[in-house]
Every structure is written in structure tokens, then in C-alpha cells.
Amino acid sequence: MPERRALVCGAGGFIGSHMVKRLKQEGYWVRGVDLKYPEFEPTIADDFEIADLRDANTWEKVLDPGMDEAYQFAADMGGAGYIFTGEHDAHVMHNSAMINLHMADYGVKKRTGKIFYSSSACMYPARNQTDPKSPNCHESSAYPAEPDSEYGWEKLFSERLYFAFQRNFGLEIRVARFHNIFGPHGTWNGGREKAPAALCRKVAEQPNGGEVEIWGDGEQTRSFLYIDECIEAVRRLMQSRSFRGPVNIGSEEMVTINEMARMIIQIAGKDLTIRHVPGPLGVRGRNSDNRLIEKELGWAPRQSLQVGLHRTYFWIEKQVQECLLPQSSH
Asked: Of the residues 117, 151, 162, 226, which is catalytic?
């Protein structure tokens, strides 16, 4: 059997770098593309191109004719502090849309076997996520559309783009809506980190008796999925013969941000208090609805949030400690 070949866009990022590792474990030849190499460990891709996926010339170079699979994780994104301030809306929409327009176009031109697109739960209507105790994020609830951010609107547009190319040109598409993927080797500082990493960092930085800041009242709800579970679900979707999605990939273990903070504080073995401060929040409640993915792919998360947070906290604690070490002089 000839070696399977895959392209991973956004391979320098969190989810993309984990997908490279999974594909290599399965025996693929893998090319990664990103503006940067993975930050926390060397890539194991067979080929890694530092290139701008907004540029059509990049696609001529990196997407080989007849490639078996392509994974599109590349996007201009970040946590609530990046997405919900409104200061980055134009870049978020322009940069991500340009990448997806090229992916769809060159996927047809280069006869790519299957393309996976990573959408987001941010595309769901804000009106269905005002009750923190019972948000509605079933796949069928996407329309009438009303995302809570320009990031969500771009994700929704790109979903429609890919399915239009599937209908008109036969492009073989798979689409999943991610719900807050987290774990080691993800961004943990600098303003683009998401809630689990931000809280792990804040707890790791504090001595006993210190304070951890949380934006808002902390009663907003979310669910969070550990990275290994996400990668497994994506692989199942790509291996499906006929189910294309869009489908949720997330956990149904919904918690408040306060509850997650207390879990991390307990994992750290520290005595800390929580202080609430103003900050960007997004929707009031969000939780994955996994009925469709369980029916179509037989997939459900295998581990609790507590297990994933334990692994993530101690990895981030190590990063924090290394940053505090005095730099050696030569």
C-alpha cells in the first residue's frame, strides 16, 4: 500500500502540532505549514514550510497534486481577551477567510482527497446561549445565524464555503465545530491563551494566600475537551465514508469558570482566593451537544475534565517556573 500523504495547515499551533504527531504515528508522510514552528517542542513533520497561507503562491508550493488528506487548523484567533474586545475583528475575518478561500480553491485544483476544516462553537447563535445552565448548541440550532463575534461569523461563512465547493466541484469535505480544546503545548500567556491555560498560569504564578483574577462573576459556563480526545474525534470523522458534518467535537461536562478555577487551585494544592474583575466574556453559557457525533461516529470523551486539567496544570507550572529562572550570563 502506498504511503498516505497529508498536509497540516497551522502545524505550528496547538491542535495542528498534535495532529502532526498523530498522523506520523499512523504512518503518514506529513507536511506542516505555518508562520512559525511549534513553540514548545520540535516538529516531527517530514517537511515543514514556514509560509503565509493567505498568499496563493504558498498553496502552489505546499499542496501537492493528489494529496490524500489536508487538515485546515490555521486561523487568526485567541481567547476571549483577543476575540471579544473588537480590536482585532478585521484581521480575524480577513486573515482566516483568505486561508479558507485558498484551501477550497486549491483543494479542487490539486484534486485533494479529503479536507478537514476546524470550525468553532463560536458560530452558534448568541440568543441560544444566554442561560448558563441550559445553552442550546445542537448542530441544527445554527440557523437563523447570530454568532456572538466576528470570529464566529467567519467560521460560519467558511463552513458554507467548503460545503458549496463540495456541492459544486465534488470537494470531499469534513467539518467539525470545536468546543474549547485544551492541553499541554498550547498558548498559556501573552493574551491569546484560552480560559483553562490562563487560569492554570494564574494559579501557578501565585504563592499560597494569593489571589486569582476571573473576568466577570465567574458564573458563565463552558465545556472543555482535552486535546487527545479532540484528535481522536477528528480522525474518526476523516475516516468516515459518508458523514461530513458539521458536527460538534467537545465535552458535555459543563462547568462554571469559578468551578474550573477551584478545580485548578485544588490540583495545585494551594490556598488561593478568587477575585472577580471586569473583562470580556463572550456568551453566558455554552456546552457541546454530542448526540450527533455519538450516533454517526460512536465517539464520546473518555476522561473527565479533572484529568485533563491535572496534566495541563503541571505542564504550565513548569513553563512558569522556567520563565522565573535567572538567565545565565556568558
From this structure: 151
151 is catalytic: yes
Residue 8, SS3?
strand
Segments making up each domain of the chain, as ranges: 5-182+225-249
**Which CATH number fits the domain 5-182+225-249, given the four candidates 3.10.560.10, 3.40.190.80, 2.40.10.10, 3.40.50.720?**
3.40.50.720
Question: Bridge partners of 50?
Answer: 34
Contact (Cβ atoms closer than 8 angstroms) between residue 85 and residue 23: no
Cβ burial 78-112 (10 Å sphere, 16+ → b, else e): bbbbbbbeeebbeebbebbbbbbbbbbbbbbebeb
Q: What is the pLDDT of residues 221-230, one digit of tens each?
A: 999 999 999 9
Q: How far apart are the first and last CA of the chain?
A: 53
User: What mean pLDDT value characterizes the chain?
Assistant: 92
Residue in 120, 114, 85, 139 with CA at minimum distance from that of residue 7:
114
Q: Tell the burial category of 41 from Cβ atoms under 10 Å away from its Cβ (0-12, 13-18, 19+).
A: exposed
The per-residue pLDDT for range 57-92, each reduced to its tens digit, is 999 999 999 999 999 999 987 666 666 677 889 999
